[in-house]
Amino acid sequence: MMSKNLAENIVKSQNDFAQISEETRAALMKSSTANLANALLKRGFRNTLMLGINPLSPGQPKMIGPAFTLRFIPSREDIDTMDAYSRDDNKHRGVMEICPKGSVLVIDAFGNTRASSMGDMMALRLKTRGVEGVVTDGGFRDVPAFIKIGLPAFQQKSAAPATPLSMHPLEWNVPIGCAGVSVYPGDIIVGDGDGVVVIPRYLVDEVAQEAADAEMYEEFAAWHLERGRSLIGLFPANVSSKEEYNRWVKEGRPALEFYYA
């Protein structure tokens, strides 16, 4: 039976968790983590891409959502027994019930791959509850079954041993570090084939739009490159190519083959 405190925390987390607008989500869907990181770099944020973190499965869906965090510390033999891990009030299991729908679970495993950050049963619970994905700077277990569940997931490398071997779940929804990047609850997490980027919540609308615009310019530039145009002055854009691109956008972005006919 679920404890009263856990039930209260679930209600509070669902009520307090701010989601992004559909317009911003659409812009993020169009944007690569590379272009999102570039937009953040222009604003002075140099450390936003998680180091050494890769998709669990190539071709998995893109991951977008506000961060809900779980922090591990090293385990201790007299505390982190298998019996203790099986208790209903264990925070590792509890976070699977409290992580809000639409969020991304971000796990601070202090880079530990000696034990698993989670496995397929927990992934299934998150997926069923509508969580958007999970990222750890440690590793997952039960990988073949995990992949079949279809929950977007990012890790350092797989880790089969049980969690209590070397990790203790200390707290959730607090500021953490994950793969060298600070993550605050509610920061927007985006994961794709290149990795995972962390966007401060208050910047996400403008960063998403700028990155989406960059994607559109890259399509414009790629069309010209395929037809033999030089990279110089085109990518990155100089003043002339920017003006050319802006005229095309102002005219409604007609099909380029007709626009340049």
UniProtKB/TrEMBL annotation:
Signal peptide: none annotated. Mg(2+) binds at residue 142. Its cofactor is Mg(2+). Gene3D superfamilies: Ribonuclease E inhibitor RraA/RraA-like. Substrate binds at residues 119-122, 141. InterPro entries: RraA/RraA-like (IPR005493), RraA/RraA-like_sf (IPR036704). It comes from the Bacteria. Pfam families: RraA-like. Keywords: Magnesium, Metal-binding. One of its GO terms (molecular function) is metal ion binding. This is Ribonuclease activity regulator RraA. It comes from Advenella faeciporci. The lineage of its organism: Bacteria, Pseudomonadati, Pseudomonadota, Betaproteobacteria, Burkholderiales.
